[in-house]
Design a protein that fits this description.
This protein has about 190 residues and is α/β, with parallel strands linked by helices. Helices cover about 35% and strands about 20% of the residues.
């Protein structure tokens, strides 16, 4: 009986560990596949749409999560600061309707593309779990950073760790990104039934 309990524990731990090491989605150092998703103007956008990009700030977000709402202005600021020097924000909505996405982009005057992941396949392929969840990609689509925008969703001025800015600044200076992973703080993505 004791041997059986030990074996079950070992198999259980092996299953958990295999699930942890064989995670779904992208890891830092892996290459992201391109995608083609509709923007709010119905134009299809891909990473390759940005011919002069030095990299990409891909952010999975939604309309109604309090965390996503708290970061709206900061996401626009990131785009305004970095798009002209080669790192555009590409926001991907994970769960709202196309009409709601169009309305939000218009109301907030988003300066970045706001794409509709109708099937959630792109969201799943990246491994995004929360909104907002950031993936910074190098020009060759290699993942350089995954996680949060900064360390204070309530107050941008109180944030003393600006993960996205630090990562993009490092890449623009041809330096290594020092913080490559942080925990994405936000609402869990609501998955659609198959």
């Amino acid at each position: 009986m004791m041997l059986r309990a030990i074996l079950l524990t070992i198999f259980g731990l092996a299953f958990i560990i295999s699930g942890m090491t064989d995670s779904q989605g992208l890891n830092v150092g892996e290459k992201a596949e391109d995608f083609s998703l509709a923007n709010v103007d119905d134009k299809l956008i891909s990473l390759d749409s940005y011919k002069n990009a030095k990299g990409y700030i891909v952010i999975f977000t939604c309309n109604n999560c309090p965390y996503a709402k708290a970061y709206q202005k900061r996401i626009a600021e990131l785009h305004n600061e970095y798009a002209t020097i080669g790192f555009p924000v590409i926001a991907i909505n994970t769960s709202d309707s196309k009409e709601d996405i169009k309305a939000r982009a218009k109301d907030e005057k988003y300066p970045f593309v706001y794409l509709y992941d109708k099937t959630q396949e792109v969201t799943k392929s990246y491994g995004a779990t929360n909104t907002p969840h950031v993936y910074i990609l190098k020009k060759d689509k290699t993942v350089a950073y995954i996680g949060a925008i900064d360390n204070n969703y309530k107050d941008a001025k109180a944030a003393d760790k600006r993960y996205v800015k630090d990562a993009v600044d490092a890449l623009l200076a041809n330096k290594e990104v020092t913080t490559t992973n942080t925990k994405a703080i936000g609402c869990s993505i609501k998955w659609k039934a198959n």
